Each structure stands twice: as structure tokens, then as C-alpha cells.
Amino acid sequence: MSMSRLSGVDDLNEMYESIILDHYRNPRNLKKLASPDLEKDVNNPFCGDELSIQLNIENDVVTDLSVSGNGCAISQSSGSLLAESVINLTKIQILELIVNVRKMMRGEDISEEIRDSLGDIEALEGVKKFPVRIKCALLGWTGLEDLIQD
Ligand code: ZN
To answer: Domains plus CATH for the chain?
Structure first.
């Protein structure tokens, strides 16, 4: 892992940095699904990030999801945080979550209640100080949004 891969992480506060690095080194839900109902590959050419998203969906609830890829620590850890956060949520709940993640990354005001609902995803907030990295952080979320929106 080269230092340049981690640029942008170094300046985040320590607690957030440890969450991001943990997800980067040990990504959750990496295993490809046997028979996905929906799948999509997304990439961020500005940074060279790639993510493959697969999911199973039943009665509008995401029952299983896989996120795998290559790229910088921010894009990959964000994909892992996503994978950990959306299983067993309804499509509507996921779309709401994505709206809130995007608000957080844009530095918009979000309520304490929303902040609590984000859990570890909040670790990505420090990335908003690095505008070129926001695309990295949102790559998976934008891909998932496209995937579940009819
Ligand atoms: Zn990136």
C-alpha cells in the first residue's frame, strides 16, 4: 500500500482514520453473490477507483449485498461501510440514507438524529475537506442509488 493511496486520510482525525483504515484493510461483504438480482460496476476516472456492487432484493428489502473493487482507501472503505449499512433496509430507507450521506459530504446541516443513524459512516465526513476525494467517498453510494432506482 503506497502512501499516495492514503493521502487525504492522513489529515482526518484519529478516530475517523482508524474506522476508514479498518474498512480499507478488512472490507465487509466482499464475497460475490451466487445469483445477484441486480449488479453494477462503477468507476471514478479521476482517481482510478472501481467498485462492483451486487445485491439481492426481496419485497423491496435488500437481503444481501456485495461490494468489491480496487482504488484508494476512501473509495474502498466507503464501499465497505455501505455494504455494512444497507442489508435488511428497504429501498426507500436506502435512498434516504444516500441523501443523508450526500448532505454530510457536502457539509450541509444534518440533525443529531440523522447523524446517529449514520453510525460509522460518519467517519467519511472528514473527507469533505478534500473536494477531489468527495467523488471517491460517494462512488459506491451513487452506484447503489442508480441500481435501486427504477
Ligand atoms: Zn479515490
So the answer is: 3-149 (3.90.1010.10)
